[in-house]
Amino acid sequence: MSSHTFSFSYLCVLTIFTFFQYSLSAENQTNIQCIGYERTALLEFKNDLVDGANRLVSWNSSNEDCCKWYGITCNNQTGQVSEMHLPGPDDMANFDTPEASIQRFRGTLNPSLQNLSSLSIIDLSYNNFSSNSIPSWIASLKSLVSLNLAFCELSGLVPAGLMNMGSLATLDLNNNQLTGIETAGNSSTENICNLVEINLSWNKFDKKSLLEVLTSLFECESSKLESLSFASSGLSGSIPESLGNLSSLQTLELGNNLLSGPIPDSIGRLSSLLSMNLPDNSISGPLPDSLGRLSSLEELDLSNNEINGSLPRSIGQLTKLTTLNIEHNLLTGVVTEDHFANLTSLVTLRAEANMLTLEVSTDNWEPPFQLTILSLNRWNIGPKFPFWLQNQKNIFILYLASTGISDNIPDWFWDTFSSLRYLNISDNNFSSVSVNDFFCSETDAEQKQVIYMNLGNTNLSGVLPDCWTNWEFLNILNFQNNNLSGKIPKTLANLSSLESLDMHNNKLSGQLPENLMNSKSLQIVDLSENEFTGGLPIPSGENASILKLLSLRLNKLTGKIPNEICRLDSIQILDLADNNLSGIMPNCFNNFSAMTGKVDKDQIVDLASNEFMGSAWLQTKGRINGYSSILGLLTFLDISGNNLSGLIPSEITQLVELRMLNLSSNRLTGNIPEKIGNMAILESLDLSSNQLDGTIPSTMSSLSFLNWLNVSYNNLTGRIPSSTQLQSFQDSSFIGNKLCGPPLNLTCRAVGVSDGGEKGNGGSDGPDWGLIASILIGFVVGFWVIVAPLISSKLWRTKYFEILYKVWCKFCDLKKKKSSFT
Ligand SMILES: *[C@@H]1O[C@H](CO)[C@@H](O)[C@H](O)[C@H]1NC(C)=O
Ligand SMILES: *[C@@H]1O[C@H](CO)[C@@H](O)[C@H](O)[C@H]1NC(C)=O
Ligand SMILES: *[C@@H]1O[C@H](CO)[C@@H](O)[C@H](O)[C@H]1NC(C)=O
Ligand SMILES: *[C@@H]1O[C@H](CO)[C@@H](O)[C@H](O)[C@H]1NC(C)=O
Ligand SMILES: *[C@@H]1O[C@H](CO)[C@@H](O)[C@H](O)[C@H]1NC(C)=O
Ligand SMILES: *[C@@H]1O[C@H](CO)[C@@H](O)[C@H](O)[C@H]1NC(C)=O
Ligand SMILES: *[C@@H]1O[C@H](CO)[C@@H](O)[C@H](O)[C@H]1NC(C)=O
Ligand SMILES: *[C@@H]1O[C@H](CO)[C@@H](O)[C@H](O)[C@H]1NC(C)=O
Ligand SMILES: *[C@@H]1O[C@H](CO)[C@@H](O)[C@H](O)[C@H]1NC(C)=O
Ligand SMILES: *[C@@H]1O[C@H](CO)[C@@H](O)[C@H](O)[C@H]1NC(C)=O
Ligand SMILES: *[C@@H]1O[C@H](CO)[C@@H](O)[C@H](O)[C@H]1NC(C)=O
Ligand SMILES: *[C@@H]1O[C@H](CO)[C@@H](O)[C@H](O)[C@H]1NC(C)=O
What we know:
It is a single chain. The protein has 822 residues and is an alpha/beta fold. The chain has a 25-stranded mixed sheet, with no helix packed on it. Strands 27-29-31-33-35-37-39-41-43-45-46 form an eleven-stranded parallel sheet, with no helix packed on it. The protein has a six-stranded parallel sheet with strand order 12-14-16-18-20-22, with no helix packed on it. Strand 10 (197-199), helix 4 and strand 11 form a beta-alpha-beta unit. Helix 10 runs antiparallel to helix 11 (794-821). One 2-acetamido-2-deoxy-beta-D-glucopyranose (NAG) binds at residues 316-317, 341-342.
């Protein structure tokens, strides 16, 4: 078979030859030089960039092969530049640092890039072209397939041509200040149908309607679009029916816009859809049944909308669904096990804050899923503790607050939920639960992993057991509004990770834990409305305290407020009201640096928006609910309802970041500190029911944010200073004193200059009087400046006193007129 042999050896030769040729050409390719005019174009492009960190050092004429330049890739056949990867630093944690800033290119994009006819990928993301718009010439880059200008601080409109390029598949313009898409006029827009990915999230489309912005996209006969991201861009309008035409769509991100109206039924046509994220809009109406046809869907987020009606049963067919988030909507009706029938992949189920009722018909329903996150707060689930949870052994977030459960906590609880990290079962009835068994059962004495535990409002009673060494990861513990008694267990007070402890409104008694103010972790402590006795613990001062909120209101604490309390220099809210504290007020409150503005505002914890921390505390304080707009940065000092005596220390007026001060119902004496007007952002001031005397300092009229004032039932005298604020309060803010002038009906006696102004703070009762006061001050100052040198000359003396007498009389006339008005 010689022909066979021949053909075989021929094949061998051929193979060797092609291999040889291949390796030759490969070597040739590595030496390929870039094309001269492309190099020139790149250098020109570099010229217009401000390159503070000299990242483009390799881009120079002595380094001829531009294919080896930083960020440049060439086509290995033609030597033409095909890719440009020049992203700036994208580390979000250090985004605004000067180091990152200098790494970013600034300047403008030179149109010389148009000469790179093979350029298919441009990535200039995370650079800073602030106040520039996207140049329209980019649309003439005929080979461009992918353009990434995310995080570039670009403004203006997206050029129409860019959306309609034919070649362009991926357009990423997220996180800019773009305000819209240029209208194409009467030119054809069919090429928009070639786009595969658009990301315009985090721009500023200022209420433009989604349909208007993307009409031509939705009209595509066969769209190739796989990913549409328009989150947080200020889009309004409804979700168009024609969205269903985007048959290749896999990712839909339209969260955090102003979208309204229902989800169209056509959504069911998006059979490739993997993820649909529409949270934080005003989407309303019922969910379409067609949702059940999204057979590829893995992630569905419709949270924080106004969706009503019932949860369609078809949702149970989404076998691939791993994440379902429908929390904070207006869904009603009954959910049964059918709704979960085929949700075999489900891992995260967030559905809290709807009006749904869970009814499982069989007593041994075993859900087809294994959840890690389950949040059904405010559903109607009880009265029995849901038994079907027994097989959910992977759960690490379990939220069943306010679900009408009135039951024992099952004994399999810690067996099943050994991975639990976050537990909120507050607002239920667990009056039959033994706190000892639940927290300290001998049988499962192993370490708990729990970080957050909320058992507030659950009718728990009994003495808290002392076994908290098993809970070493506990960060946030909330037992508010229960009937727990006994002392605070030592092991609880010593927990090294505990940051927030809320025992508000229980029956706890005994002395406060000694180390309460020395913890290296505690930031929030609310022990208000209990029966604690004894003195305030004394901070040792070894470490700077990080306590931010301390409320011991309504207990039976006695003794002095120790000066050492001023070591709590991070304190934002200090509430010692309604105890039996006595002695004088410490005069070192000006050490509270969060209240004196000595710390960065950033370090002041936004207590209100912190789900786990202060919001519960703030909600319980009904009387400050009117302040929701500023709750976040609340600073608050309340020592009212004690037995404190002595003067109000003037240091308190250095708390210029304080918003609320309450010293009422003590036995404080002396004057209101003169510099109270320095507390510029004070919104609420209560000094009532003390024994303060003297006048109301005139500086108080500069407290322009004051919207609550009470100085009633003291011994104050004189005229109430005038300001738009002070005169707007009711009589009741001032009664029980010897005050006069508006807003009180009582006219001040008109007695010359010294009226109501024993300390020279010029009482006044209207805007005119402020003017007069300043005239008067000018008068007095001018008087002595001029008069002193004149005393020697008798002639000049008489002359001047004549003039001065005339001025004085004008003043007297004014004053008479004013008195007759009031
Ligand atoms: C590269 O290839 C060209 C022709 O394609 C050839 O003339 C040249 O000699 C090759 N250079 C090297 C270094 O192999
Ligand atoms: C040009 O680029 C090369 C390669 O990065 C570099 O070594 C050289 O210092 C550069 N020359 C100039 C003048 O910047
Ligand atoms: C040439 O480029 C193509 C596509 O960029 C790549 O797949 C191929 O491996 C490259 N060839 C060589 C020899 O580098
Ligand atoms: C971008 O540059 C502008 C001024 O040119 C500057 O104000 C801004 O902070 C810069 N942004 C970033 C993220 O570096
Ligand atoms: C493109 O290249 C041509 C010739 O190579 C040159 O005349 C022209 O100025 C270049 N255009 C730009 C925008 O650099
Ligand atoms: C667009 O329409 C106007 C008149 O409506 C016409 O004058 C113009 O030529 C058209 N432009 C194109 C590109 O068709
Ligand atoms: C679009 O950009 C946003 C913001 O950076 C990002 O979170 C999102 O994942 C992007 N979308 C896609 C589909 O890549
Ligand atoms: C797109 O959707 C709309 C509404 O669903 C429909 O009227 C239109 O015919 C569709 N267009 C195409 C090209 O399929
Ligand atoms: C849903 O809300 C709309 C108004 O937004 C109302 O007309 C409709 O009756 C509601 N449907 C249900 C089932 O409550
Ligand atoms: C669940 O899936 C099975 C098998 O795919 C199917 O027979 C059944 O009808 C599905 N049930 C529901 C409620 O969709
Ligand atoms: C008010 O002051 C008068 C004397 O100035 C004093 O006799 C009286 O006891 C004071 N009242 C209160 C409540 O302190
Ligand atoms: C003020 O006094 C007058 C007359 O004494 C009385 O008619 C009026 O009701 C009083 N106003 C207030 C607010 O007390």
